[in-house]
Amino acid sequence: MLFELLGVPPQALFAQLLIGLVNGSFYAALSLGLAVIFGMLNIINFAHGALYMAGAFVAWMLLHHFGIPFWASLVLSPLIVAVFGMALERVLLSRLYHLDHIYGLLATFGLVLLIEGTFRQLYGVSGRGYPTPEVLKGGWNLGFMFLPNYRAFVLVAALAVCFGAWFFIERTRIGSYLRAGTENARLLQAFGVNVPRMMTLTFGLGVALAAFTGVLAAPIYQVHPLMGFNIIIIVFAVVVVGGMGSILGAIVTGLALGVAEGFTRVFYPEASATVIFVIMAVVLLIRPQGLFGRR
């Protein structure tokens, strides 16, 4: 009865719900890395999308140049990009922690131009395909849609990593050190904790989350130098709506906005590209610190 009133077949709604959850899992995983870096280091990492792209490209290079399969790349690519990110943090970003946010934003924007320009010079702008793992080919006929196995895997893997990172930060001793370091780094260092090293590892964790998401995205979207630029604006909107620095807010808001985007494609497709930004504007008017943020 409800579907008749809405004038929309139930198959379309359920299909967009699943597609929205898959897209939302990408938003959540990327937003989580961004929220970790801002919440712990107070740096607005505009290069997050470029590092997501780098994760996908590293997986592609590991496969085509060294024959390393997808499952190994899920571990190796985030580690490689995380090491690169930690080097950037030590050389550049560690000098900006006590300055205004605009310096971090400008520095990471410069990194975007450098990273994307390097990959464009090496590989051009055309997309490169990454094969779906053999064991995840095919899918399930759910009656209202055909769900590819790989997209179902992406949803489960992204959610598992998101909630694993949340548990690590919010429920472990090391996570408590990370949170304490953002409140009073000098006091924490007085208790014998190496705060600079902890900050470097935190940035590496956020970068690894971006690279892991890039590896997950590689078999779905073509790997190309601008793939990070296309998604980073949406990810920033997700982080703002959830609350800058809020770990749980990034996860919940990423999934919710992915579903909202999917449903908008059913009822008003023309607005699907802007609905996330409309929601962001409304939330900022009502609650400027975001849904899960603190004043």
Radius of gyration from the CA trace?
A: 20 Å
Give the helices and strands as they follow along the chain.
Answer: HHHHHEEHHHHHHH
Structural class: mainly alpha
Give the averaged pLDDT, no decimals: 86
- Low-confidence runs (pLDDT<50, min 5 residues)? 1-5
Helix content: over 70%
Please indicate the count of domains. 1
Biggest sheet, strands in spatial order? 1-2
If you had to describe this structure to a student in words, what would you say it looks like?
By secondary structure, this protein is mostly helical. The chain has one domain. It is built from twelve helices and two strands; from the N terminus they run αααααββααααααα. It has helices at residues 2-6, 10-41, 48-66, 70-91, 101-123, 149-171, 173-183, 185-190, 195-217, 227-242, 247-267, 275-286, and strands at residues 139-141, 146-148. Helix 2 packs across helix 10 and helix 3 (48-66) packs across helix 9 (195-217). The longest helix has 32 residues, at 10-41. It is globular and about 60 Å long.
Question: What is the topological layout?
Answer:
Layout: H1 2-6, H2 10-41, H3 48-66, H4 70-91, H5 101-123, E1 139-141, E2 146-148, H6 149-171, H7 173-183, H8 185-190, H9 195-217, H10 227-242, H11 247-267, H12 275-286
Antiparallel strand pairs: 1-2
Helix pairs in contact: 2-6, 2-9, 2-10, 2-11, 3-4, 3-5, 3-9, 3-10, 4-9, 6-7, 10-11, 10-12
